[in-house]
Amino acid sequence: MTSSPGADSRPSQPRGCPPRLLALCAGLGLLLWGVAAARHGLLQSNAYDLGLFDQWAWLIGSGAAPISSMEQVHVLADHGAWMLYLAGAAYRILPSVHWLLASQALALSCTALPVWWLAEQAGLTRRRCWLACGLWWLQPVVFNAALFDFHPETWVMPAFALALWAERNGRSRLWFGLLLLMLGCRDGLMLITAGMAIDLACRRRWRWSLAAGALSIGWLLMLSRWLYPLLRDGEGPKAATRMFNHLSGDPLPVLSGLDWAGGAEYLLLLCLPCIALWRRASLSTLLIGLPLVLVNLISASASYRTLVHHYSLPLALVAVVACIDALRGQPQPQRGFPWMLCWAMVCWLALAKPWFFSGPYLSRVPQLQGVNEARALIQPQDAVLTTSYLVPQLSQRSSIGFPKNKQSPTHKAGPWNVLLLNPNDPGWGSSRKVQKKLLTQARDRNWSCRNWPSGLELCRAPGAAEQQPRRGNAPSDSRPTL
Known about the structure:
The protein is mainly alpha-helical. It is built from 22 helices and 5 strands.
């Protein structure tokens, strides 16, 4: 590979960061970890995806086969995320969901460090370097991704930004290694590496473009033709089938069935925080996000087209780097009001979700005492069927699941010996009807049950526990109670 024109005039390595920037990265990382932990403690985290990744990491750390009891899928057959084995190593030391929440928060906050180096590499003044970092921290999807459970691609946002720095500085080996690291966190990031190939081709960096394109195609073929079929009994990627199966058939009906209005709104909200700074110099960088944007637009799930979920997180970094490119060479006023940061703050307040802590995230506070008491009655070896929002509280075990509407409402379908359900608040993917039927079946089979005023009910199969806990609140009948 050849270096880009003018690479010799750029710094050969990142310069040191201001101590204030390091302190802010650490402080904001702790803040993001704190709000994510608070959301989890308020029972607002979910089986998908915190419970799923927590169980996988726990299984790896325990030396067991990392196959989810909720999806019956090997960890590598989900998104090819081999980086989760690092989380498993941490779980071997101390099994805690906070490894995931804390590492995600710190990775997102510390992405500002390579953003600073990119701004410095572009020759921006110190004040504009701070502007670039502020724009990253104030991206609504950054806060929302830190808050919304856990997703391993958050780990490599610093690697993505550093890969852009390495490419612009002609560091081919570092750049290619960082791309491999990105792909090790999620297969969907091959859309970003494909976008980098498009950007490099537009800038006539043919060898670099060919390397990025070949890596993207090679990774896709390796996963879809070998790894996924090997681990899924010949089947391909589950998510791709579910999200894009609607695209088969005649093109006209497919196009007419797409959510055009939702897509337009998504694009507007995505561009809103940074579009005022973009210029013609930004266009090449914006092409990096093109494949991911197109995939999000045509997905069957509307969650791909929101800033609440993590699917648009790499696009936020692309938007900020496009701002850096636009500011390159522009005159810097000596003094002036920071209008752009104020606008970014307005967008953050409107599109991020901190205000959820004032209402929606407090909805399950009445259940906390009952949930804590129920958790104390559940043994580590128990196979638990519970509500989706309680899965992350109990996911460090071999068998955990939640009753889904699409499945037959019977506990014969799984290895469950404990039910912990709340028909009054059935959670995502379930319903009051399904959970009431499961609890009725448990009582009919003489399972011992205990309930709480919130509607939470714990039922245990006969002989599932070595000792019966003392009698609690339960319907007055002759059956033993927990």
